[in-house]
Design brief:
Blueprint: H1 11-27, E1 33-38, H2 40-43, E2 54-60, H3 66-79, E3 88-94, E4 108-112, E5 115-119, H4 125-134, E6 136-140, H5 152-170, H6 180-199, H7 205-215, H8 221-232, H9 242-261
Parallel strand pairs: 2-3
Antiparallel strand pairs: 1-2, 1-6, 3-4, 4-5
Helix pairs in contact: 1-3, 5-6, 5-9, 6-7, 6-8, 6-9
Length: 264
């Protein structure tokens, strides 16, 4: 397993989190806040001020009560007055539920696109592994000291499910890949999964794409450059017709799925 690099909070995110912590402390008593943590692309050192989500986990000593829920809705409404606040995605997880999966947990407060709701959100082995090993501690107990364990086998099983169930099904639906977001998502996600299987660490979408650019054959080069264009310069002209791009994406996805299967 590769050594994990800990990244610092980008300045813009730091300012947002300062406002967030002030608001949070008006809702919860200090002893109820175990800690606030950043995971996702920011923790992986791949923050893009224009596009990155602010993925966070706030750990609390006990469940959120009704009054607190309403106050959290108001806090996120206020924070979403800023562009970054609108891109806050996160969860309020009771200490006793750390390391669990959605089917083992009661509904909790989560935030999607800057709006607070009740239900279940983005929890899987990758979430927990990234939080524990690469999470940035904003306040409270250090992420690596949080009282839960997550094994690498759990991460691989999550990746396997992602490939065998989710992407294998999507690969049957050619029409999806006429949409740019699906082209990008399919390619960069599979790149991340391949990197993870090969190097036993979790990397950003940017790194996943770079990995594919370095190791894929010439027949995929134009598609990979097109995905880089979608990510970095979406207003620039397409390098491939929509039809050819969709067809290539589907074929490449099937090729990458087979490559992953050889690694299980």
């Amino acid at each position: 397993m590769e050594n994990v690099v800990k990244h610092a909070l980008p300045k813009e995110v730091e300012q947002l989190m300062e406002q967030y912590i002030v608001g949070l402390k008006e809702i919860f008593l200090d002893e109820k806040i175990v800690g606030v943590y950043i995971y996702g692309s920011i923790a992986l050192g791949a923050f893009h001020v224009e596009t990155s989500d602010v993925d966070f986990v706030t750990v609390i000593s006990d469940s959120v009560n009704e009054a607190e829920k309403q106050q959290l809705v108001e806090l996120h409404k206020k924070l979403s007055g800023s562009t970054l606040g609108k891109r806050m995605d996160g969860m309020y997880i009771p200490l006793a539920d750390l390391g669990k999966y959605n089917d083992e947990m009661n509904e909790y407060v989560y935030c999607a696109d800057g709006k607070a709701n009740i239900g279940h959100w983005d929890i899987n082995a990758v979430t927990w592994w990234t939080l524990k090993n690469q999470g940035i501690t904003v306040t409270g107990k250090e992420a690596e000291d949080l009282p839960f364990q997550i094994g690498w086998d759990d991460v691989v099983n999550t990746m396997k499910y992602n490939v065998e169930q989710y992407w294998s099904e999507k690969a049957k639906q050619l029409y999806l890949f006429f949409i740019e977001e699906w082209v990008e998502s399919a390619v960069v996600t599979m790149g991340r999964i391949l990197y993870t299987l090969d190097h036993k660490t979790i990397v950003s979408k940017d790194s996943g794409l770079q990995y594919l650019l370095e190791r894929s054959g010439e027949e995929w080069e134009l598609l990979l450059k097109e995905v880089a264009r979608i990510r970095q310069n979406p207003k620039e002209k397409r390098m491939l017709s929509r039809w050819r791009r969709a067809d290539m994406t589907r074929k490449y996805l099937l090729h990458l799925i087979e490559t992953c299967r050889e690694k299980w």
